[in-house]
Amino acid sequence: MNDTSLTAHRDNSGDGIFSYRIGSGKYYVVNMPSLVQQVFAQRGNVLNKQRTLEWFMKTAFDDKFSTRDEHEAFHGHHNALNLMLKEDFINEATGKTACAVEVEAAKLVTEAPWLYPDAEGKPMELWEEAGQVRFNHDGTFEANFYDLIVNYMGQIVIDMLWGKALIKNHPNLQADMWHFDEGVHHIITKFLANITAAGRRAVAARERLTIAMHEWHEAVATKQAGRDPGAQWGALDDISQVMQDRVKVWIATKASETLQKTNDVSVLWGVNVNSNKNVFWMLMQIYSRSHLLSDIREEIAPYVHISPCGERGPDGFPKLNINIDGLMKHCPLIKAAFYETMRMNMSGLGIREVIKDVVLKESASDAELFGKKRPQAYTIPAGSTLVLANGTMQMDQRIFANPEQFYPERFIEEGPDGAPRVTMKNLHTFGGGLYKCKGRYFAEKEVLIFASSLLVMWDVAPVNGEELEVPKMGYAGASRSPLEDVRVRLTRRYN
């Protein structure tokens, strides 16, 4: 099933649900908003995705069925991740992220190596190397924008959650993570894993990632037991509480090494794969529209700005002040731009196994929207599979008018107090019900912090030509990657 075939079958059926038979199984594809909400409302004894999750962990991460067989340990790990939904974690994580970005935003690109007197010059940051930064004599910089952004953002977020020693000891961690992401759909197809170059790179990268995450786990577990993990790991005192707790869960439940390292790789990938890419696509859409760029900069100016007292970071670059609360509450346009980016960029399928027969009924408004005379009810039998066709719904002109157009205002409406407010409406990129994304609240603040800070600190233009063009989307991992990276010229707005 892909977006093209799903769109064709949706349009041909005219219904809120249509079905496929693949082998011995029957798959019911949901493509109407009111039906999606009913799916989210079902309990786990009616609809769940446990078998799908077990299959994915076995196929994508080679967990050798440990997710299936070590039930207590696996669910203990997921319960520990629930901390990411709690206000204390969100405030801690976003506060630490904002503090880092206030200093690091000006360091998206640093300074040319030849400006330093030592013979070997100043080494590039890892994200600069990934973005193949070129330092121009006129004070501007050139870089591959996608690789620069996803690795810059990944460095800060990984350091904040897992501590700085992880990447310090495994400097190729992000390169491996993005190689895995590029080829994960080849791995899932199985026979492509060893045939295609992307598949082979992904398998090799996955192996290195599991080694890195197990070494990190062993070091933290050793520290928690009151022993010295070794000088290369340092104090390990900058690790977030949620990751500290997960190590304790693995120890308490006597989880196997395979379960620990494969699930830790899945969390590392999951934390980065959507947010980092969305910041890239969001920045590309905004920088390529001068009026939108101007409006967003004006909107965020009171809440994200250069330090009024001229503070500078330890490297001498200008420091930002970021008011997270003001950014979230009083900047509807940039938040709507984030939602619109997800609508156009994230194309995934939500899977639910049907444990008991379930009846789903179209709403009258949705039936009218789809041109039907009356709502239809569907009985979905136990033993079948429900598929939520998020990607095709997000590009359905009946649900989102002019879906090919980047139009953030579609998510802005007037609130009860007359002020504009942003609502996701029929956008379900964070899932819902039992399977709502655990990192949703942090992810939204994280994306706005990174995007707003870079919009304030940097001008971005094409290396060739007058207008920045948004690249075409390919497929990789959970969110789309560009088919080709885009080479840009960056200029720091404040020195």
In short:
The chain is of the alpha+beta class and 495 residues long. The protein is 48% helix and 13% strand. Helix 6 packs across helix 8 (145-162), helix 11 packs across helix 12 and helix 14 (275-287) packs across helix 17.
Report on this model:
By secondary structure, the protein is of the alpha+beta class. It is built from 20 helices and 15 strands. Helices cover 48% and strands 13% of the residues. The strands form five sheets. Strands 1-2-11-8-3 form a five-stranded mixed beta sheet. The mean pLDDT is 90.
What is the topological layout?
Elements: H1 3-13, E1 17-22, E2 25-30, H2 33-40, E3 47-48, H3 50-61, H4 66-69, H5 71-81, H6 87-104, H7 126-130, E4 134-135, E5 141-144, H8 145-162, H9 165-169, H10 173-188, H11 197-224, H12 241-252, H13 257-273, H14 275-287, H15 290-300, E6 304-306, E7 320-322, H16 324-330, H17 332-345, E8 349-354, E9 358-361, H18 364-369, E10 377-380, E11 385-389, H19 390-394, E12 412-414, E13 420-422, H20 440-457, E14 458-462, E15 487-492
Parallel strand pairs: 2-11
Antiparallel strand pairs: 1-2, 3-8, 4-5, 5-15, 6-7, 8-11, 9-10, 12-13, 14-15
Helix pairs in contact: 5-12, 6-8, 6-20, 8-14, 10-11, 11-12, 11-13, 14-17, 14-20
